[in-house]
Amino acid sequence: MEQSTALAARVDHWARVRPLLVDGLLAGLIWLVFGLLSVLVGGLTGLVVASATILPLAVRRRWPTAVLAWSVAIFVIQLGVLPIPLPGNIAQALVIFTVAAHVASLPVRLCALGTALAGSLAAGFRWSTEPEYTRNALVIAAFLAIFAGLIWLIGNVVRGRETNTRALREAYAKLAESQRQRERFLAQRERVAAAREIHDIVAHSLTVVIVQADGAEYAAEHAQPWDRTDARTVLATIARTARTALSEVRDVIDVLRDPEAADDPAGSSVGLADLGQLVAAVRAAGLPVEVHADPAVFEETPAAVGFAVLRVVREALTNVLKHAGAQATARVVVEREPAAVRVHVEDDGVGRDDGVAPAGPGHGLAGMRERLRALDGVVLAGPRPSGGFGVEATIPVAARSARR
């Protein structure tokens, strides 16, 4: 059954893309059958009239109105020269069907119907015979009119089906284009999210590396004597930070290659230990950090919330390292509330002169806000009245679905 349906669909497609060829073959076939039979009925005159009626069917769908006018003219001539119908008159029924099925103008279609009815009446009186001439004429006219009307109605039904099919094809094309646009949008959003993640990872790691390298350079130049233990500690911190950054960047790339990995519960969990490692790296860079974190934040909330907390703390501490000054200290508080998680990161450094954090999509606090927006969270940031800078993030626990 499926093979038959597929074959019919292929044949229909082939016929649609070659209308002139199909109509030419149809006209030739009708002429071979009904045109030649007209010789038996009307002789040579019947053959000429039938040929003039049938052969224009080869262009019936290209010029339906012109073929209709030609068919009417030939039929009038036939009524004048022949007192009998011809087998070739079947072509005129096909012309009526063509106009009804392929002409969009309602007046033209109604004209075709009116012409067919008038022709039916004229043919009835022309082809009627005695002894009951009038009765026979009306019977013939009624039969031809009913036949022509049915052909006209079938053509209109086909035209409606073609119109609906065309509308469905256009709607499908629009749907396909909308789907492609959605896929492009999702791909763009994935790239933006990856760029934001990589920015945060690289910015934090390079900040730690730069602080360590600057400290080591200063110590190498001014400290007497050079302490190998301190040098080894600095280099170990730099290496550890670089390896961690490389691993996290690879994780982001893996998620881009396999988006389903981002939804894997086994690979998408963070805990208090991750926060501890982050703070330890910042402390190793020379920034004293005080931490108060509720373990329930990571144990009793979705993984997406835990990741968001970690990202907020990392971005805030990175900004402290870059902008707070050499003598600054930081304080991190992560609290679990009934309906949300709150993150406070404060420092007592000098901060920026203008008190404004860097802006721009995917950078600094703007990237943090974008990330939390996916979880219905908000971020407030600005200078503290007592000095320094503060960041406060609120993340609903019952957040809508978000990406890692």
TrEMBL record:
Every Signal transduction histidine kinase subgroup 3 dimerisation and phosphoacceptor domain range: 190-259
Organism: Actinoplanes oblitus
InterPro entries: DUF7134, HATPase_C_sf, HATPase_dom, Sensor_HK_TwoCompSys, Sig_transdc_His_kin_sub3_dim/P
Lineage of origin: Bacteria, Bacillati, Actinomycetota, Actinomycetes, Micromonosporales
Protein name as it appears in the record: histidine kinase
GO molecular function, one term: kinase activity
Catalytic activity: ATP + protein L-histidine = ADP + protein N-phospho-L-histidine
CDD domains linked to this entry: HATPase_UhpB-NarQ-NarX-like
Histidine kinase/HSP90-like ATPase domain mapped to chain residues: 309-398
KW Nucleotide-binding (keyword) present: yes
Sequence intervals crossing the membrane: 29-55, 67-86, 106-125, 137-155
